[in-house]
């Protein structure tokens, strides 16, 4: 029975609503207040997968994806990942549009240009097909002018949508427009005092405090056209849907209320809301939502330093409506899930097209690229036992264990290099001192003695079960001791194959050394 992925279900919904049109426009949004993170990348990736499913269903229907950067937003807070001088520069520019703030790193015309450039590099590296759109260009280039006029003529209707969602004290001053002060260049310090639709204009005063600084006191009239004002987030979303004619957009569940309001506002303007998809948020190691404005979270670049990009794609493709913890442990787990998907997909023949593989790895060769039966978790544990950063040494161990493998095999070498880096840069810095009790040392000595004679994988596995049982322990307790001695972790791959991979003599030496380890010391490398 054919599997219908969530992307195909979304494509069918788009066709049911907009299939008669000449093209389908997809949109993703990015706020360049900080560097793009995996959540940003994910939204473009997932939208691109829906676009792919749509093109498979209707190859005759043109599609386009706008990657939109809201770089006219004012800077609300300074991300953590800057030095003192850079933070001082950004703090001095709080509330100014991101596109008007100097680049604190000094390499681009503005802070927004720097972050937009990083976004595009990230998307280009993966090969996404998209059209980049910036808020600055749309506002200041006049693209949004007709939409801004429509908002100005519908101010009271839009206020009627938004005001019931605000507290009493905020209602009187709320406006869909945020003027950019002609005096100080800031946004969140301005208050609209009068609307002048007959002149496409409004009046404002710069009277609010923001970031510890009061408004500059300017009172002025300004046109709403050509980037002299921008609109607030909920209205800006509706503005883009209206002007561009967006047919599909996805967003995190934290924006559900914004989407509901934007849907009502775009109808007031005379437009139609797109098909929408709500996804769950990515969480960091502490369980908090990843935030680019705070500057935390695993980056695309850090993931690709350790695992192939297909493993990242698979992590993003699965369970979009389930919150995912984006911790360091997700990387080796996802790499092995990808390797397992490769095995199952290539073994299944025609079933390959029914799997996730064409989405996460569309350019794979006809032949299986990696059939050695050595999971990434095993390579990672081998990295711990080798005590070396020599990728050739690791590959040689795999050769000895699995037999004929091309010495120049690029996929194996990439995995081996990623495992060595992950162990050195992620595992070791977080590794705590390991202590063994006297009964633990006895177990280690017994298994070390056993390994000094040649045995096959199954015999080693059986002995690892038997030794703790003979002492009245659960096998899981014994395996924890063995893995701690061999690779400094509580768990690992199947012990028999792992011992054969690293070599019985080396494993026996590591176990014996751990048995003699003094309390409070870290386990020595094999």
Supply the key terms.
single chain; 526 residues; alpha/beta; Rossmann fold; 4 domains; 3-stranded antiparallel β-sheet; 11% strand
In short:
The chain has about 525 residues and is an alpha/beta fold. It is built from 22 helices and twelve strands.
Proportion of β residues? Answer: 5-15%
Helix content estimate = 40-55%
Gross morphology: elongated
The number of helical elements comes to 22
The biggest beta sheet is recorded as: 5 strands, parallel
By secondary-structure content and strand pairing, the structural class works out as: alpha/beta
Number of strands: 12
Rg, nearest Å? 29 Å
Q: Outline the low-pLDDT stretches.
A: 520-526
Average of pLDDT: 88
Per the CATH scheme, the topology name of the largest domain is Rossmann fold
Strand order of the largest sheet: 3-2-1-9-10
What is the architecture of the largest domain at the second tier of CATH?
3-Layer(aba) Sandwich
Mind telling me the CATH class of the largest domain? Alpha Beta
Overall number of domains: 4
Gap between N and C termini, in Å?
Answer: 50 Å
CATH superfamily of the largest domain: HUPs
Overview of the structural elements:
- This protein has 22 helices and 12 strands.
- The chain has 526 residues and is of the alpha/beta class.
- It folds into 4 domains: 193 residues, Rossmann fold (3-Layer(aba) Sandwich), CATH 3.40.50; 74 residues, no CATH class; 131 residues, no CATH class; 78 residues, Arc Repressor Mutant, subunit A.
- The protein has a 5-stranded parallel sheet with strand order 3-2-1-9-10. Strands 5-6-7 form a 3-stranded antiparallel sheet, with no helix packed on it.
- Helix 10 links the parallel strand 9 and strand 10.
- Helix 18 packs antiparallel against helix 19 and helix 19 packs across helix 21.
- The longest helix is centred in the C-terminal third of the chain and has 21 residues.
- It is elongated, with a radius of gyration of 29 Å.
- The C terminus is likely disordered.
């Amino acid at each position: 029975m054919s599997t219908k992925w969530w992307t195909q279900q979304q494509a069918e919904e788009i066709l049911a609503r907009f299939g008669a049109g000449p093209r389908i426009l997809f949109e993703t949004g990015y706020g360049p207040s900080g560097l793009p993170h995996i959540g940003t990348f994910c939204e473009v990736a997932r939208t691109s997968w829906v676009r792919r499913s749509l093109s498979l269903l209707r190859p005759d229907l043109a599609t386009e994806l706008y990657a939109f950067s809201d770089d006219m937003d004012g800077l609300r807070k300074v991300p953590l990942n800057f030095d003192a001088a850079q933070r001082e520069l950004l703090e001095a520019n709080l509330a100014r549009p991101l596109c008007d703030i100097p680049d604190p790193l000094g390499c681009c015309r503005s802070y927004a240009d720097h972050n937009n450039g990083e976004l595009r590099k990230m998307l280009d590296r993966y090969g996404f097909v998209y059209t980049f759109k910036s808020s600055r260009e749309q506002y200041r280039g006049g693209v949004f002018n007709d939409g801004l006029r429509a908002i100005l003529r519908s101010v009271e209707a839009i206020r009627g949508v938004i005001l019931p969602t605000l507290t009493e004290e905020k209602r009187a001053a709320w406006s869909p427009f945020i003027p950019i002060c002609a005096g100080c260049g800031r946004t969140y310090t301005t208050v609209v005092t009068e609307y002048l639709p007959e002149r496409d204009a409004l009046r404002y005063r710069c009277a609010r405090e923001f970031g510890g600084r009061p408004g500059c006191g300017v009172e002025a009239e300004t046109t709403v056209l050509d980037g002299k004002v921008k609109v607030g987030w909920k209205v800006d979303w509706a503005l883009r849907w209206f002007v561009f004619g967006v047919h599909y957009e996805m967003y995190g569940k934290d924006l559900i209320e914004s989407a509901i309001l934007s849907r009502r506002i775009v109808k007031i303007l005379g437009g139609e809301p797109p098909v929408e998809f709500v996804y769950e948020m990515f969480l960091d190691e502490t369980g908090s939502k990843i935030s680019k404005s705070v500057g935390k979270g695993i980056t695309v670049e850090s993931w690709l330093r350790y695992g192939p990009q297909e493993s990242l794609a698979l992590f993003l493709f699965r369970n979009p409506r389930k919150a995912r913890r984006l911790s360091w442990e997700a990387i080796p787990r996802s790499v092995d899930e990808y390797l397992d998907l490769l095995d199952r997909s290539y073994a299944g023949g025609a079933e390959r097209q029914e799997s996730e593989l064409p989405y996460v790895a569309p350019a794979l060769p006809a032949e299986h690229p990696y059939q050695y039966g050595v999971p990434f978790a095993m390579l990672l544990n081998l990295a711990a036992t080798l005590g070396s950063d020599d990728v050739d040494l690791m590959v040689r161990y795999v050769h000895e264990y699995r037999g004929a493998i091309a010495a120049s095999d690029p996929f194996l070498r990439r995995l081996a290099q990623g495992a060595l880096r992950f162990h050195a840069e992620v595992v070791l810095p977080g590794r705590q001192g390991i202590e063994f009790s006297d009964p633990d040392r006895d177990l280690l000595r017994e298994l070390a003695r056993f390994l000094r004679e040649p045995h096959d994988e199954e015999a080693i596995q059986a002995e690892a079960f038997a030794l703790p049982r003979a002492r009245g322990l659960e096998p899981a307790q014994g395996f924890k001791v063995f893995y701690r001695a061999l690779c400094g972790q509580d768990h690992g791959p199947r012990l028999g194959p792992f011992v054969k991979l690293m070599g019985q003599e080396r494993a026996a030496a590591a176990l014996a050394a751990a048995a003699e380890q003094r309390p409070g010391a870290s386990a020595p490398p094999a």
